[in-house]
Amino acid sequence: ISDQKPLGCWSVKHGQILTCPVVCNFETHEYIAVHDDKVLRIWKNEDINLDKAFKATLSADVYRIHSLPSGGPLVLFRGGGVRTLDVLLEAPQQEIENVISDEVIRWSGAFMEGQQPVLIFTTEKDGDFFVYVQKPKLSSLHKYKLEQQESSKPLCFTAHVTNQTVTLLCLYSNDSVYQVLIPLQQDTEQEEEEEEEEEVLSKSLLLNLSVSGAVLKGTSLVVLDKDHVAVLGSLAAPGKKPSERLTIWNTKFQTLQASKELPLGTTGQLWCYEEKFFLTHGKVLTVIMYKCETSSLAAAVGKLKNSKTPDMSSFVNWNTLQDEELVVSFQSQESVALKSESRMNLRSRRSGVAKEQPGNLSVGQLLLKLKDASTFMLEEELRKLVAKAPTPDLQAAIGCVVTALTDRCKKNSMYYPRSFLLQIVETRDLSYSLCPDLMAVALEKKDVRLLQICLQRFPDIPEEITYACLKAFLSISEARLRSIDVNLDSVICYIDVELENKEVKTEIVENGFNAEVDQDTCDTKTPKEAQSRSDGESCPVGPQKTALLNAVLHSAYTETFLLPHLKNLPAQQAILFLRYLYYLYVKCSEKVNTTLPGIRSPTINQVMDWMCLLLDAHFTVMVMLPEAKELLSNLHKFVRAQVRFYSELNKIEGSLRELQRLNHLRDSQTYSIEVLEII
């Protein structure tokens, strides 16, 4: 999430359907999925093809897999049977008992009580709700009936286990949260199952979801700690249009602690993990950090002495003004504080949040005030803001400053504060997600210097933008590039230069490759072949374009997402890029440590990865193009020579290790002559 880069992507075959959420096995660091109800798949992060992953077909339909950090995965079947994953894998076709009859599972959760995993699930049948508590390792099962509520029914459930007691929280359709306490009975493996009368669980009212006449129609409920819950729902106030909100409540004192409006709408689902909320807001994944403090009456009513600001401060992000989206940062006077928010458009957006300082305008208010200001006034005020001493919120604020500038650039095609943008990007540790429109504007203005710096400094550039930069760099003419100020630190130490129209080249002695003698027996030296070797020795592009291409090579990417874009690269540009990569490959091979001199120079691994990507994307086209034939042939011969050379090294690896061992054993103070015979 921090880098907004997909780390892995797997898919099932056409026609197959994932039928329950995928989980991670914390003990083995494996992923576990179920498709088509009965087919279990297990794979690791380095596995690429899901179809080749471990597969087991089970005898019954799976409802959900629960993964516990220290208890191992638990598999809950639609019939109510539960197995640990280890027991299930010993005999995948083992018979699974049907615990429930004509009932439908509505919710399930897994917890650890001491060393024992506990699985709880609720079912519904003809309007009645039941609760099952299972301890799989002790073969213990208890069934309870939930007390009925007149004219309302449970919408969702959540639970937590403390002190041998299950606390089940139920969100009902009458806009209330009820609490049910279920004691965990002490079972042993030798305990005989007894047919008992079904116990009815009584419930108590925990919370009414209403504030000053407004009622929250909840859709999702999660527990934060013993005194706080979070509810996602729609707030309906008299005379006002309902609005979706994320709310945090103190159940001990029946008070609303924090509330955040979500104007773009949600799916009604809310997740909570390691003091972070996860929810979808429009087309955006929103992550909100929170912290629960000790519940007290003063905190519940907002009367803490250290409270700086009694009201919630608001910040309007210029990037979403057209959507009238309000991003709210809650102050920390409440016992539950929303600390910060990281929002992303699945891979390419993060909006910062700035707090209001006493006596000063917040960043959001300042930007709103400057929205219609003159260009001079806008830049003057923004320069003052950028020049402020570092604070925890300044980085996000600067991202908003860049967004404000790029928004004005898009509205006024004649406006482009290049020097100001260069100053900000060069002196501040920004990221693509903090100013997502910056590189798009730079591409439109063909500002290759700014694009070069962004590629070098931004860790989270989407593959689509990386490809757009590559295409722009390859298409721009060498004559125009000579007049542009480009940082040449990555190329100046190794690139061939021209002097009086004559190339000055270093002597190339590749690792294990001699172009004069390492030819096929059927090959004959022709002028074209000699010329192609010369092409491999001289850089096919100028210094400025070389520096720009090096910036692309350094940019982080995921192969799965870059390859489709790379296939759209025009054939002539693809050949030119491959010629440059081949040139770099030869240059790297000149050195024993295969490392190019200079600052931010490409590594041999980066060069080889990009060559493979480019050949994967354009191999068919290159094979058909006559101008690419000699390049591919020379590349093939060079790689073959490298493989042959390292193969020879492997043959004498044992002797070299023995020589190294003898060097360690030799007494450096005594003189000796040794003859080592390498067989």
Automatic annotation (TrEMBL):
This protein's UniProt keywords: Activator, Nucleus, rRNA processing, Transcription, Transcription regulation
Protein's name in the database: NOL11 protein
GO MF, one example: RNA binding
Organism: Pardalotus punctatus
Segments of this protein annotated with the region Disordered: 519-541
Residues of the Nucleolar protein 11 C-terminal domain: 366-677
Positions of the Nucleolar protein 11 N-terminal domain: 1-291
BP-aspect Gene Ontology terms: maturation of SSU-rRNA
Domain of life: Eukaryota
One Pfam family recorded for the sequence: NOL11_N
UniProt subcellular location: Nucleus, Nucleolus
Biased composition (Basic and acidic residues): 522-536
PANTHER family the UniProt entry points to: NUCLEOLAR PROTEIN 11 (PTHR15633)
GO cellular component: a single term: nucleolus
Xref: InterPro entries: NOL11, Nol11_C, NOL11_N
